[in-house]
Amino acid sequence: MEKTRRLGMLLMFIFLVLASVVASKGEDDFSYCESMVRKWAESSAGNRIKADKLTLKDFLFFLHVPRTGGRTYYSCFLKKLYDNTDECPRSYDKLRFDPRETNCRLLATHDDYSLMSKLPKDKTSMITILRNPIDRVFSTYEFSVEVAARFLVHPNLTSATQMTKKMKSRSRGVSTLDIWPWKYLVPWMREDLFARRDARKHTEVRSIKGKQNPYDMHELVMPLHTFVDDPMAHEIIHNGATFQLAGLTNNSFLAEAPKIRHCVRRHPNLGHYVLEVAKGRLDHMLYIGLTEDHKESATIFANMVGSQVLSQSEALSSLGEEETSNKTGKKF
């Protein structure tokens, strides 16, 4: 009986010691994370683009948040403000050009704010478009399904994957599968679609006629609630626009971005640092459009910078003519 009592006391002691160690480690982990995130936030506060009284600078960086209508905004509006020669090479995944060597003035990309480390900050203006986050999640889900479903013409996933590799090796253009975040979301959804199609071959599928909820067709496609709850969505979609503005996506140029994201996921209350950085960067942007008011957003921005774009273009044109004249007018 005495031995049993002593053993019980020993086990209780061990339990308390282990609990203390775990608690200590948890506290140490939080302290480490808080220190790192706060240090990043403080350094980011002094690393913003400053909007100089709504003056358009030499270089315009359009930070394209996915599923905000940015492609339409860029193709039908921004490109019309600039000449074709002013457009920078495509950069929808990783920076594909050196801004110090490339003669361009307009860049649109899904790369996050960390791209500013590659650009001439004192000569760069930034704009973006924001959208209701719930609508953006729905749109992200729908687009992922749409693009992934195109591969169902193949007999199996292996065939689809091999064909994709062949096409990418032959093409010089930018594929959807090269672009963040679709390079992660589309293959994930594609694999799920093929798995569900294969499962239907071996099980009796009830008729889907009369079903009212297109976001819960689990026999055919990953349901929306499964999509949203998956770690992949938590990594890329949840608070995606905020992390993109903060420069902390899993496509970031910032070396410590993975550690900061990990800390914020582990300790959600540290997210307020990320939010404040993102809000601060919005405050310092030249202009912010809204997907829900596309036409009005474009009109306001055009009225604000249209004359400046024309003035810059005329100045560059005059400079080019002067340089040509100096080269051809030399006397010997």
TrEMBL record:
Domain Sulfotransferase: 102-153
Highest taxon listed in the record's lineage: Eukaryota
Membrane spanning residue stretches: none
Coarse class of the protein's main subcellular location: membrane
Lineage, highest ranks first: Eukaryota, Viridiplantae, Streptophyta, Embryophyta, Tracheophyta
GO molecular function, one term: heparan sulfate 6-sulfotransferase activity
Name of the protein this chain belongs to: Sulfotransferase
Assigned protein family: Belongs to the sulfotransferase 1 family.
Short name of any one Pfam family annotated for the protein: Sulfotransfer_1
Signal peptide interval: 1-24
Protein keywords: Glycoprotein, Membrane, Signal, Transferase, Transmembrane, Transmembrane helix
Mode of membrane association: Single-pass membrane protein
GO cellular component: membrane
The enzyme's E.C. designation: 2.8.2.-
Keyword Transferase: yes
Gene3D superfamilies listed in its UniProt record: P-loop containing nucleotide triphosphate hydrolases
Subcellular location field: Membrane
